[in-house]
Every structure is written in C-alpha cells, then in structure tokens.
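Late entry, evening session. Most of the bench is empty. Finally got around to the prediction I had been postponing all week. Sequence below, unchanged from the version circulated by S.P.
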Amino acid sequence: MLGTNSKTDIKVTKVDKGSPADGKVKVGDVIIGVNGAKLQNNPRREIAAAIDKSEGKAMRGRLTVELKGGKKAELKLKVFGDFSRTAPANCAKTDALVTAVAEQLITDEKQLQGDILAIGWMGLMATGEKKYLDFVKANLPKQEWAKPDRARMLDIVNGGKDGGYVGWYWGYELIALSEYYLLTGDKSVLPGIEAYAIALSKGQDASGIWGHRMTSPKRRGRLPGYAHIKQPSLTCFMGLTLAQACGVKDPDLQRAIEKYRGFYNTFVGKGTIPSGVSAAYSGAYNNNNNGMSGSAAIAMSFVGDKKAAKFFSRQVATDYDRLETGHATHFFNVLWSPLGANVAGPEVTSEYHQRSRWLYTLYRSWDDRFTHDGNNQKALCTSGTLLLNYCTPRKQLFITGKKADQSLWAKGAEVEGIMNLSQIDYAKLSIDDLLAMFGHEAPQVRRGAVWTLRDRKGSFLRKIEQLILKGTDLEQESAIGFFGYRCPPEWALPRIKMIGKVLRDSSENVEVRAAAYALCWHKPQGQAYFNDMLRLVLKDKPGDPFGLINDGVAKSLVITSENPFADGLVTDKDLFYKAVHKLSQHPRQQARGSAMTLLVHMPAKDFSRAADDVKILFLNRAPSSHSYSNPRSTLLPGGQLLARLGIKEGPEWALEVLRTEDGKGSFKAIAVNSVLNAYGANAKQTIEEIKADPKLLGWLSGGRWSKGWNAAVKAVESGKGAKPMISFEEAKKGKLAK
C-alpha cells in the first residue's frame, strides 16, 4: 500500500492485489490513525512504529487502520516478533526478516536477473546461511557479468569503442565476485576478478577517480561527460582492494589504489564528499551524499587508513535521520550509510538501527520484498540492501564487517556523543560552550558554533582573539573564520591587522595562514594583504599534494579584487605573474579559473609575461588536471581577455575545446558561446564553420544555452564591432592590436 502524506494523515494512492489491505482499504481513502492512536506529527514514522508493534507477539499481526469518515479496517500482518534493543545483533525478529527476504529473493528470478549491481547476490552471501550460499554457488558463476569479456574491457580503456556507463557496474560486480571468492574459494571466478581489476586500474583518471565511463589514452587520461562521479568511484576502489586480497597482482592495480586513496584523504577532517570535484562540504553531514560517507568509511578501512575510516564512519553515523536524500535517488544512502556506520562498531550499528529503523520498516513490502520509497527500480535490487544491512552482525563479507578493525569501534558514552552530533541545538548553548566547539573534530560542529555565535551579544570578542593568538590549529581557523564572511564590519575591521599578522607568519601552520582568506571579505582594508596571499601561493606545501590550500587562496585573491590592476594591487609584477603561473598549473578547474580571472584585466604590454599560461588555461590542457568538466571558469574570462587584446585565435581555440572528448557537453557549449559573444563580429569564420557542421550546430543552438548562440549569431550578422586582430604569436612577442 502506497500513499502521500500531510502532517496528520496519509492518502492512499495504491493498494497491491493480494496484500493485507486488498479489499479493506481502497485508493483515495485517507488514513488518520493506527492502532487506536491518531496520526499527529509524522505519519510515516507513526505508521512504521505501529507496523513494528503489530508484527510482535502481543499484537499477533493485527494492525487497525482508522480512515477518514469514521471507518476502520483491521489488517492481518505477518508475525515476525519484536526487535531487541541490540538489533540487528542478537535479534530474533531481524533473523526472521532476513529469512523472509532471502526466501523471496531466491524464488523471484526477475530481481536477480536484473541485478546488474549484484546487490542481491551480495545480500544472500551476507546471510552466511548454507541454503542461500548453495544457491549463490550454483548460480552466481553462471551470470553474464561473472564472466566478463576481458578483451572488450581492455579495448574500452585503451581507446576503442565506448562502453557506456560501465563505471557504475564494474565496481559493484568486482566487489561481488571478490567477496564470493573470499567467502567460498571458488577459483572459477578469478579470471573475471582479474579482468575487472585490470580494466578499472587502466580506466582511472589522472587523479585516481572514475566517472560514468572510463578514461582512455585518446581522452588524455580524462573522463568524458561530468567526469568524476564519486559514488561509483568508491565502489570501483573497494573492488580493486578486494581484488588485491584475492591475489591479483599488477603494477597498475597498486598505483590505482594509492592514487585513489590520496584523493579521498583530502576530505578527512574537512566535511562530507560532494558531487563533482568540489571542496568538502561542512554545512551538514549529508549534502545529497548518495551514500558516499558510508562508502568512504568502508573503502578507507580496507586499506588500513584509520584516520579516514574513523572520520567518515562517524560522519555517516550521526546522519541517521537524512537517508532520503541523494542526487537522482536516495537508494545509495539506504544501501551504504548503515554499512559505513558499522565501521564504527556494533554499538554504533545498534544505535543507528534503533534510530533509522522506521524507514527500513516502511520500505518492507507485504510480500517480503524490500523497496526504497515504494519503487523497486530496475537494476537496483533493494531486497539485497536490507539483507546486507540486517546481516552486519554476521560479518560474512568484508563490506559487512568481516575482519573489521576493532580499534575503530566506538563504545559506551562515545557512541551517544557521535549519534547526537547532528542533533545539537546550538541556540541553547552558552557562549563558552560555543567557543569550546571552535576546536571540535567535526567540521559541521565548528561551523555551527561560529555561525551561532555571530548572532549573540556580549563581550566575547576578546576570547576569540585569544584563540587566534594561542588556540589549536582548528581553533585558530575557526576564530579567523568568525571574522570573515558576513561578519559585521564593526567586529571584523579592528581585527584585520591581527589576522594579517597570522597570514605573514611563516612559522604558522600553512592551513591556519590560508584561513586568513577571511581578509578578502573586508575591502579596502583586506586588500593590503594581496601580495601576502600571492606569496602564500608560491610557498611549498608538501602536505597538500592536491593543492586544496592554493585553491582556497586563489578564490580569496579573486574576491579581494575583481580588477587588481585598476585597484593598484599589482605592485610586484614578478610576484604576481609567478603566482598566476603556479595557479595555471593547478589540478583543479576552479583554481585555474581563478588564475584566468586574475589575468582578465592585464595590460596588453604585459601579455608576453603570461601568454603561455593563458593558452594552456584557455585550451584546458593542463596535464595534471583532475577537474575539467566545466571549462566556463577559464573560457569566460579568457574570451574576454583575448577579445579585448585583439588576439584572433580565441573562437578557434574555443571550438577545439568543444570538440575534445572530455568534460560535460552542455557546460562546454555554454562556455564556447560566451567566447563567441566576447568576439562578436570577429567570430564570423568560426560561426560559419559551426553552421556547416550539423552536430556542432545542434549542440550550440539547442538547450538552455541557445540564447547565447543566438546572440553571437546576431552580432556576426550585424557586422558591427569588428576590429583588427593579431595572432597569438604576434601578441606573445609584444605586438599590440590596433
């Protein structure tokens, strides 16, 4: 039975034939109460609680539903018993549910046949029960995905025919095959394990991530489309580490594991993992997370990275109440979040299930299937999800806790503290309590304390000053940040020199110095430290291989001044252009975009100083890049710069960017249209070339970016604004356009 709910009732939208509600409740009925109690605040949770109680021995399966209009319907549910306080461990009801779900799964061929992520197969293995393992042994090796075509897979990653969205499937299938081999010792699947492992190792991009598709040599080591997709990246990584445990040995495999591990360490201590290649998100514990915190906890535990595994497992554990979020679907949250919380130990797992169980009860169907939000999607075996999560105490699979590192387990009062992090009511805390949180290990807590304290009145500013001067690194960063974005000027401006002193102090931790980006929000006083930010860019940062610090400083430079030349900030040109050059080599698109933005107003006479950097940035060619799907950050300011200087290659180069196989097509189309508009009538030749190519024309003139294309065409057809142009090489040698 499905329905839509308000705060006090649920309107029935579907009744399954043969279900307990069939013939007793009809579509259009409105449920206003269950088991004698009115629905009062959260109908879904209240109904879930009633279902659990009705399934117990005392109620013997009776569920009384009160309908609007004075009617009542008594439904007969299956009796599974009552959940124990330690569920899913030592719980007869959990075991009964596992048996019921596993039974229907092995008798419903459609679910397993369409299970291209192999979740149902892993769920059956997770039970550890002979009956279901025998079924898996007899059937899993026969599946098409268990016998992959190695030659075809290698052709895909070596630049042959595109394989489609294999990034989503290969990782899951490799996990399933590896778990199967490590559980059963069946060597028949080893060739498949090796094929997946080698192909995934070669299909990884320059930063160690995967996307919908694989990279290849002809893609310059980059991924097509959106580029990085972190959910499948995490499962690809898990698969590789398990394949290594199965005995697969290959130099590419080891390299792939180390490269990936490094990338995901950049989020540790900073926040949750967002979509795309963006900074860690510290505003909440789940930012459309798609189960990524949970997946990351498991993945990092596989490689013995205790710090990362501990961080991610606690991030996901406290977010037990936001499972129905996600990009495109919440399926992956429902699947991976409890498994990730399990890395923090059985006490956390038990508490997690106590607090989130209502949702899993609501997703259980009358016929023993498990669905997410009533939608058993093709290729997503949601019954397997329940088995995996309810079988964590059995520890049959590595993803469910087999050979878990017990040093990561939280116990006693620590468990309650972890679970309640997401429930902190900052408004009720005292000023001293909030200040004490400035050094908390959870970035969301630090941020919550800073923003809450901003709304308080009192004589606490000197205490924050003391944290800047004598606090721990985290306390210093929080205290400096307090005086940054949206801080009242009357509070921030008297502390500008204090923060500036931290920025200039070479003995300070470089991350603390970078936190002085807070200065950029306060103009013109903060502009006095523009050159100090440039010097920080040039400082070696051996502990920051992915350049996150410089990425943040680059953004700060742009915020400090939209036109540093007009503002008189470029007082040391050697320093300025050296810093911009370093940023032009940055692996992140955002930092490269900041570099181009800093150059957009440069004098024509200076072009030779940065010509090569401009070309590399514009063409999106930086060999070290690990984010590149949206070149607008470089093409928009780059087009303005080249058009202003009268350098004729701009439109031609933009077209080259459009034709490359990496990056997201719509993002590139928007960026290219911005360049064509910057050149106006001087883009005539390129526009004619586009018009002659149906594919390019359809690409640029369609979709939500058609307005930009139409404006560019109109400018060319008017013939107005055309001006003399020079070549890039001429400009590089110092020639100026007339």
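Two things to note before I forget:
The radius of gyration is 29 Å.
The first helix runs from residue 43 to 54.
Will write this up properly tomorrow.
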